[in-house]
Write a structure and sequence with these properties.
alpha/beta; Rossmann fold; 3-stranded mixed β-sheet; 13 helices
């Protein structure tokens, strides 16, 4: 039996579908109030004739990563645990919730996993939890250690602290692997997360930031997660990155797939500094979530590159080319965005 958290999100939805396709049993954690919209959309897109059959194979359990006893009960009889639940936000007001879910929730997960003597624990962290490379513009590797700096975010800190909970559990005997995906691209809710990039470009995005980062296909993320969890590898972490590219290059690829004009105006650092401040003022008076925050404005200016050498060599794995990933997602989204 496989136990999956974050089951109603992008990674969780793809992960569950892939496990079911491999005839694996899946028990999935969700809150009682959770919507199944994203996982249903994924199942319908990839198994249009049998999506209901796949959905019915899932053993759903209501619980919460912040409720330890619900986790211990849910993990009874479980072999492998995939902890993909997390809270992503760059809004200052969400800071307590970010730490609570990403750190305390992970602490609860590893304690429950040890109590139930699971075989392997796979934790989905993030490139945000990696430290700066040894030299500027070098590739980030698994040997980089987290350091404080201007490019760090509250989310990055929380995932780093979550990793520390997993490493502590490993010292106590839990067999685990940690994966650090870059920006995950997949067919999910086009109003949220990285999938929203496609919506923005399709709507006529005018500006791009000069930064660059890593991007990875969600299918690569779940395939490597399963391979690492089912392997003899343990007590190690792996960067999952398909390609390094500038935001400008990615926006141009997306625009091409939709037959739209790509963003032409580079958002200079000073423009971002003004904009996030204006958004903060607007958010204060209207109560609406700021579209751009200090963290996102500054992150978009940085150039970061990530090495996938370790996971490629460990698993003899080849990632999807970035242009294929973008074309694939766009083909699924066109029906909804046109």
């Amino acid at each position: 039996m496989n136990f999956v958290t974050g089951s109603t999100g992008l990674v969780g939805g793809y992960l569950i579908l892939e496990l079911l396709r491999r005839n694996e049993d899946v028990r999935a954690l969700k809150r009682s109030s959770s919507s199944l919209d994203v996982i249903e959309r994924i199942f319908k897109a990839y198994e249009p004739e049998h999506w209901k059959d796949y959905l019915e194979k899932i053993e759903w359990v209501d619980g919460d990563v912040l409720d330890y006893y619900s986790l211990e009960e849910a993990m009874t009889g479980v072999k492998d645990v995939y902890h993909s639940a997390g809270f992503v936000s760059y809004q200052p007001k969400d800071k307590p919730k970010i730490y609570s879910i990403n750190q305390k929730g992970t602490e609860n997960m590893v304690h429950a996993a040890m109590a139930q003597n699971v075989r392997k624990f796979c934790y989905v962290s993030s490139i945000a939890a990696l430290g700066a490379p040894k030299k500027e513009l070098d590739y980030h590797t698994e040997e980089d250690f987290f350091q404080t700096g201007e490019s760090n975010t509250t989310y990055g800190f929380s995932k780093y602290y979550g990793e520390q909970e997993v490493w502590r559990a490993a010292e106590e005997g839990l067999k685990m692997v940690i994966v650090n995906p870059s920006v995950i691209l997949g067919f999910g809710d086009h109003t949220k997360g990285s999938t929203k990039l496609f919506t923005k470009v399709n709507d006529g995005l005018k500006f791009y930031t000069p930064g660059a980062t890593g991007f990875v296909d969600v299918r690569d993320v779940v395939n490597t997660m399963i391979a690492l969890t089912q392997s003899e590898v343990s007590n190690a972490r792996f960067i999952l990155n398909g390609a390094n590219a500038s935001f400008k290059e990615v926006f141009e690829m997306i625009a091409k797939t939709f037959g739209k004009e790509p963003p032409k105006i580079e958002a200079k650092p000073w423009m971002g500094e003004i904009y996030w401040r204006l958004e903060a003022v607007k958010s204060f008076f209207t109560g609406q979530q700021a579209l751009v925050t200090k963290e996102t404005a500054r992150a978009g200016q940085h150039i970061s590159k990530y090495s996938n050498q370790k996971v490629c060599e460990t698993l003899n794995y080849e990632f999807y080319p970035l242009h294929e990933t973008i074309d694939h997602i766009a083909s699924l989204l066109k029906k909804e965005l046109d």
